[in-house]
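SAMPLE LOG
Freezer: B-3
Tube label: C17
Construct: single chain, 637 aa
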Amino acid sequence: MPNRLADAVSPYLLAHADNPVDWHPWGEEAFAEARERDVPVFVSIGYSTCHWCHVMARESFSDPELAARLNARFVPVKVDREEHPDVDAAFLAAASAFTRNLGWPLSVFTTPDGHTFFAGTYFPPQPRGGLPSFGQVLDAVTDAWTQRRDDVADTAARVASAVNAMRETGGGGASAIDRTALDRAAIALASAEDPEFGGFGAPPEFAGPKFPAVPALAFLLDSETDTGRSAALHTLRRMAGSALLDGIDGGFFRYGTRRDWGEPHYERVLYDNAGLLRLYADAAVLRASSDEDAPFFIHVAHGVARFLLTTMRVDGGFASAQDSESDVDGVRREGAYYLLDAEARAAQPAPRLDRKVLTGWNGLAIGALAHAGALFERPDWVVAAAEIADHLMGSHVSAGGRMLVRASLNGRASSAAPALEDYGLFARGLLDVFLATGEPRFALAARAMADATIDAAEQSRGNAPFALPGGGDPVLAAHELVADADPSEGAYPSGQSALADTARVLYALTDDDRYRQVADAAIGAVAGVAPGNPLAFGATLRVAAELTGVPRQFVVVRPATAPAEDPVDPSALSGAVSAVARRGTRGTVAIVVTEEAAAKLADSGFGLFEARTAVDGRPTAYACEAFVCELPERFIP
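STRUCTURE (predicted):
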């Protein structure tokens, strides 16, 4: 039996490479074989730090008898949902016809044309808890395929029709979200907060698990309502004071299974910790409501940054996640390592990392590090963010910045198509690095990525303001399985909202109205649903709030070398400017640049930097509103 997963880029696929199951990677070859053999396709979707994925792998995919039945009656396909988010989205949409308890591992049975006719999640080796065994499922699906083929075809057609109907429904709605709607959304979201432990979901509704919901918290923290800000600060306090935070390594776990954030799922994911670093940094410097809050939030933010830069940093960027399971004294258990103190941990192997480097998630992380580094005057954080950004621009970007790699492992690029989130999150992260460093190359790269998605949308002549350059996954397209990207954002911003935010900032830097128009269009596309569902559209609502403000810009231009009699620490200057920006009104951007950088940016079409110089060789501030600037003044931090 050939080992088709041996050379995979995904650690999740590599972990299944030695299964007795004859796994195929995602690709057209699997469907071609299914058509030739006239058998269904079994698509198993998961990710490397998924606890129940590990369990099902040990119980079923390692069982020679079950593997033989799978191999004989199906074409088995293994998919990493993080490597192929579009594939995961398409099959999640189809699986929703069969179960409301969607999750991973996702177990999907399709026709050789890729159309789903049965789906579920985890199936145990023996029937229990109302679930049939995996073997029973295989037998039932085989019986349906061989004895009731017409019923199978009818079910597949009905599911496909239902998925298409969901796609056609769309968000609709108004062209903008005004301040009144934003305030109402913030108050409504705050009213859903657990008044005792924070987070969203409280008795009698709470049944677990409880997730950080970073985009929603970011929207509340930036809210102009006292109710919204207070709710965000309360949740940040309670999360950081709970078992959700690893007080030793500094990282947050993915979710708590109890209302008080207790008994967490011990997986630690890059996107959560990137988002939480930014939240705690902003809360500490800009939003803390008491003298007790600020030092605590500073401590938490520093711990998360330490976790990212030590535990999660790998060659080429940041790892995707750290496993929930580990071997402690030779016994593999979930969470056992994290229950040890620092001294005991040193004697045990650390939980395994998923070392896969995802472009979009790394964009979130470099943006958060650069932003927090500027606020806290930590040039080492900013330097680390810039180093990783440079590496990714060299290894994950091609065609003049217009084509991206979705993922890589140890320097090898995945063949998976990039997702819109890769463009949006990476471009927005590069703008954060630019705002923290003043280095033009980061702004130029971010603009190239945004332009690529805007141009692709115009070429497709669709209604979306952004589209994937080169199209999405070819197998999904060939089988008409393409599921539109979900515009909602539970754990981190969607590609659409991240690109809208990127366009908003680019407009403030360039005075090119094209960017303002596409930002408005992206928000308008979901204006009919976002205000009524703030928990699912936190990032969109935060961008909408920024767009309600008149663009204000604060630029400090410094000479390449400060006069000896008047030295200025560049990191202190950057920190002071960042604080000015964040304390300003909505729509404000602020940056420190050298005279040389300002000239290069102006020559490259960034209109904000036109004729910006360091007067008399000293740092000079330019305060602008909608590109109309006051007279320059010497800036003293």
